[in-house]
């Protein structure tokens, strides 16, 4: 099957990788060649890491990488694809524009999916002439490691599209949870609620960021604490999600002031080198100044 992934960033290149590892031919598209190359480099690094950890053979890694073609032309990317997954930034207007552009190039039977983590799939799909073929496929970061995909059914999604989406998730060796299109779906709504409360605990000096995270990792067996996860996702992304959920669901999703301050200061988490933690060489090395609890938290 031909799969097209739009956006070669963290989520996009991860989706392209797992589709290729499942044996699909993949076109990975972004608006600039440098972005495409960065995505391909990240895939190569992930595959090489898998070989080093004996998760796959060198031949399997090479075969998967060879199934991925990097392109910048949208029509070339979409042509002949059975599935198009957009992984562009979390902006409703941009996602709708992308859906419109894809429909103008895609075959009539092509399924068009969005990787949005919280925006309304129904609203994104509303711009299509044939919205019944739209669905949400919400992957989790890092895509090649995380086993979950939320299959989000828009109001317009028909039975054939639903069946196709569930079959695709199974085919790429992921586990699907099926949810109806509601603000934040299941995972984002619960995840940001936990992260939001953890931020308020930092604000109030209840405990340091690393102690709060340790409590959830050791006490509840979370693989990563809510504040470190916020850094990995991006504080700006979390802020956008909270603002959207506040608008849709009310004041319980009001963003904490500490989050707003950090975003205004450009402290966006792992990608900027500092958020609730200071990051060096891709690792959280210590809580950021002022996030250690007590009166200065």
From TrEMBL:
InterPro entries: 3-OHacyl-CoA_DH (IPR022694), 3-OHacyl-CoA_DH_NAD-bd (IPR006176), 3HC_DH_C (IPR006108), 6-PGluconate_DH-like_C_sf (IPR008927), 6PGD_dom2 (IPR013328), NAD(P)-bd_dom_sf (IPR036291). SUPFAM superfamilies: 6-phosphogluconate dehydrogenase C-terminal domain-like (SSF48179), NAD(P)-binding Rossmann-fold domains (SSF51735). NAD(+) binds at residues 7-12, 30, 90, 95, 117, 141, 271. GO terms for molecular function: 3-hydroxybutyryl-CoA dehydrogenase activity; NAD+ binding. It holds the Pfam family 3HCDH_N. Signal peptide: none annotated. Keywords: NAD, Oxidoreductase. Residues 2-181 form the 3-hydroxyacyl-CoA dehydrogenase NAD binding domain. Residues 184-279 form the 3-hydroxyacyl-CoA dehydrogenase C-terminal domain. Its EC number is 1.1.1.157. It comes from the Archaea. The keyword Signal does not apply. This is 3-hydroxybutyryl-CoA dehydrogenase. It comes from Salinigranum rubrum.
């Amino acid at each position: 099957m031909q799969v097209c992934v739009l956006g070669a960033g963290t989520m996009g290149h991860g989706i392209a990788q797992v589709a290729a590892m499942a044996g699909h031919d993949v076109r990975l598209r972004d608006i600039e060649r440098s972005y495409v190359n960065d995505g391909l480099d990240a895939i190569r690094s992930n595959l090489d890491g898998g070989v080093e950890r004996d998760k796959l053979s060198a031949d399997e890694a090479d075969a998967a990488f060879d199934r991925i073609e990097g392109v910048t032309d949208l029509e070339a990317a979409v042509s002949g694809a059975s599935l198009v997954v957009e992984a562009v930034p979390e902006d409703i207007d941009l996602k709708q524009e992308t859906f419109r552009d894809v429909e103008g190039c895609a075959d009539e039977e092509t399924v068009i999916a969005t990787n949005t983590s919280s925006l309304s799939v129904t609203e994104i799909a509303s711009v299509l002439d044939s919205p019944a073929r739209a669905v949400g496929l919400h992957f989790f970061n890092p895509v090649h490691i995380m086993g979950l995909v939320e299959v989000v059914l828009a109001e317009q999604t028909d039975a054939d599209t639903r069946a196709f989406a569930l079959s695709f998730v199974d085919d790429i060796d992921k586990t699907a949870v099926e949810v109806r299109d509601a603000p934040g779906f299941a995972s984002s709504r619960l995840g940001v609620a936990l992260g939001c409360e953890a931020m308020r605990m930092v604000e109030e000096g209840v405990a340091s960021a690393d102690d709060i995270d340790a409590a959830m990792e050791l006490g509840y067996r979370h693989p990563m604490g809510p504040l470190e996860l916020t850094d990995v996702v991006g504080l700006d992304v979390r802020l956008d999600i909270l603002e959207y959920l506040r608008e849709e669901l009310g004041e319980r999703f009001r963003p904490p002031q500490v989050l707003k301050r950090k975003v205004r200061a450009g402290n966006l988490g792992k990608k900027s080198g500092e958020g609730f933690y200071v990051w060096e060489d891709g690792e959280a090395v210590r809580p950021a100044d002022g996030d250690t609890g007590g009166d200065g938290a």
